[in-house]
Amino acid sequence: MAENKSGIELVQSINKEWLADLETDTDLQILMYEPFTEDYWKEKYKIVLCNLEPGGDKPVVAKNEILGFDGFKYWHNEKRHTTVRNSSKFLYCLYETLKGKTFEKKDLEIAKNDNELLLNCMEKVTYMNLLQDVGNGAFDKKAQEYFWQKFYNKGNKNRERIVNLINALDPDIFVVTSDDGCDLIKELFNKKFENHLFVYNNRLFVGLGHPSRSFGMDDYVLDKVNVIMEGLKTYNLLKK
After folding, report:
1. Does residue 239 sit within a domain?
2. Between 20 and 30 A from 88 (CA), which of 76, 112, 191, 228?
3. Contacts of 240 (CB under 8 A, 6+ apart)
4. Could you tell me which residues come within 8 angstroms of residue 157 by beta carbon, excluding any fewer than 6 positions away?
5. How many CB atoms lie within 10 A of CB 206?
6. Which residues contact 18 (CB under 8 A, 6 or more apart)?
7. CA–CA separation, 165 and 178 (whole Å)
8. Is 118 exposed, middle or buried (0-12, 13-18, 19+ CB in 10 A)?
9. For residue 146, what pLDDT band results from cuts at 50, 70 and 90?
10. Domain count, the chain
């Protein structure tokens, strides 16, 4: 398992490589990520959620900066991006379930409008996107062509860096959303999702629907968190 110091150093070294590309490639739509706080590295289960994009709005950081917690809170609280807010709701449910809490729909109804509750959880997990944005929020043909060019083409250095970033973050649970995001992760690790899950290197990979739609349904959230918990049991990944 990655230690606190070595883990963050690995993440930062990958971001430095992307930073060098950003300075020369004005078309590169990469936004760099690392855990918002050191709490992530101390968690019993390290959780990463990876979306295709944050919800159609330009990042609130300069192109050559890491997305910090203030930038995420801007998306979450002020812009109230559906993708971002639904993601934090899902992560809160998963995080607290791993801690032993039993959820009902009424609990999610309360949580989804409690910014402090959701953001406290976000400080303990890692949030990332594969793209900065996709224009007006719709994954149109132009954005899809760009995504294929920058990630799907074999031998592309961005593919290798995504794998390296995942390894550096050393997640116990890696959740990827949207059909295109799931397809990329399947291809990168040469695995198939079965009932939304596969295991690679003792990590549970989870493929789910787009947060703007799927995570908005509380039944979906509760069901898929249960799928993850059952997957941890099935693959002997539960921790004492």
Report:
1. no
2. 191
3. none
4. none
5. 23
6. 28, 30, 32, 161
7. 19
8. buried
9. confident
10. 1
Count CB atoms within 10 A of the CB of residue 79: 16
- CATH number, domain of 23, equals 3.40.470
pTM reported for the whole predicted model: 0.92
What is the SS3 assignment for 56?
Answer: coil
Q: What is the pLDDT of residue 3?
A: 47
Burial class of residue 177, CB neighbours in 10 A (0-12, 13-18, 19+) = buried
Cα(34)–Cα(66) distance, rounded to whole angstroms? 7
Establish if 181 belongs to a structural domain: yes
Name the helix (H) or strand (E) containing 14. helix 4-22
Residue 165 within a domain: yes
Give me the chain's average pLDDT, please.
Answer: 87
Q: Give me the residue label for tokens 């944050």.
A: 54
64 vs 223 pLDDT, higher one = 223
Copy the structure tokens of residue 161.
């860096």
Tell me the residue type at 217: M
Return the structure tokens found at 204: 């549970």
Q: Give me 229's structure tokens.
A: 């918990």
Q: What is the pLDDT of residues 29-58, one digit of tens each?
A: 666 789 999 999 999 999 999 998 887 565
In angstroms, what CA-CA distances link 104 with 90, 92, 98, 225?
Answer: 13, 13, 15, 12
Q: 99-127: per-residue pLDDT in tens?
A: 999 999 999 999 999 999 999 999 999 99
Residue 140 lies in a domain: yes
Domain that holds residue 209: 4-234
- Could you tell me where the DSSP H helices lie in 23-129? 39-42, 69-73, 82-98, 105-111, 115-122
- Which residue in the block uniquely carries the two structure tokens 């992530």? 40
